[in-house]
Amino acid sequence: MPKDTSIRSVLIIGSGPIIIGQACEFDYSGSQAALSLKEEGIEVSIINSNPATIMTDKVIGDHVYLWPLTVDSIEQILQERKIDAVLPTMGGQTALNLCIEASERGIWEKYGVKVIGVDVAAIEKTENREAFRQLMVDIGVGVATSKIANSFLEGKEAAQEIGYPLVIRPSYTLGGYGGGFVHKKEEFDQALKRGLEASPTHEVLVEQAVLGWKEYELELLRDSNDNVIIICSIENFDPMGIHTGDSITVAPAMTLSDRCYQDMRNQAIRMMRAIGNFAGGCNVQFSVNPDNDEIIAIEINPRVSRSSALASKATGYPIAKIAAKLAIGYNLDELENQITKTTSAYFEPTLDYVIVKVPRWNFDKFKGANMELGLQMKSVGEVMAIGRTFIEALQKACQSLEISRAGLGADGKHKRNIDEIMYGLEHASWNRLFLIKDAMSMGVPLESIRKVTRIDKWFLSQIQELVQLETELKRYSLNNIPKDFFFTLKQKGFSDIQIAYLLGNVTEDEVYERRKSLGIKRVYKMVDTCAAEFAAKTPYYYSTFEEENESLPSDKKKVIVLGSGPNRIGQGIEFDYSCVHGLLAAKETGFEAIMINCNPETVSTDFNMADKLYFEPVFWEHVREIIELENPVGVIVQLGGQTALKMAEKLHENGIKIIGTSYNDMDVAEDRGRFSDLLKELDIPYPKYGVAENAEEAIVVANEVGYPVLVRPSYVLGGQGMSIVINDEDLEKAVVKLLGDLPGNRVLIDHFLDRAEETESDSISDGEDVHIVGLMEHIEPAGIHSGDSSAVLPPFSLSEKVMNDMETYSKKIARALNVIGLLNIQFAVKDEKVYVIEANPRASRTVPFIAKAYDVPYINIAAKVMLGVNKLKDFTIERKLKGYAIKEPVFSFNKFPEVTKELGPEMKSTGEAIRFIKDTEDPYFRKLIKDKSMYLSK
Question: Can you list the domains of the chain with their CATH numbers?
Answer without folding.
Answer: 9-116 (3.40.50.20), 145-208 (3.30.1490.20), 216-349 (3.30.470.20), 403-520 (1.10.1030.10), 524-659 (3.40.50.20), 688-751 (3.30.1490.20), 757-931 (3.30.470.20)
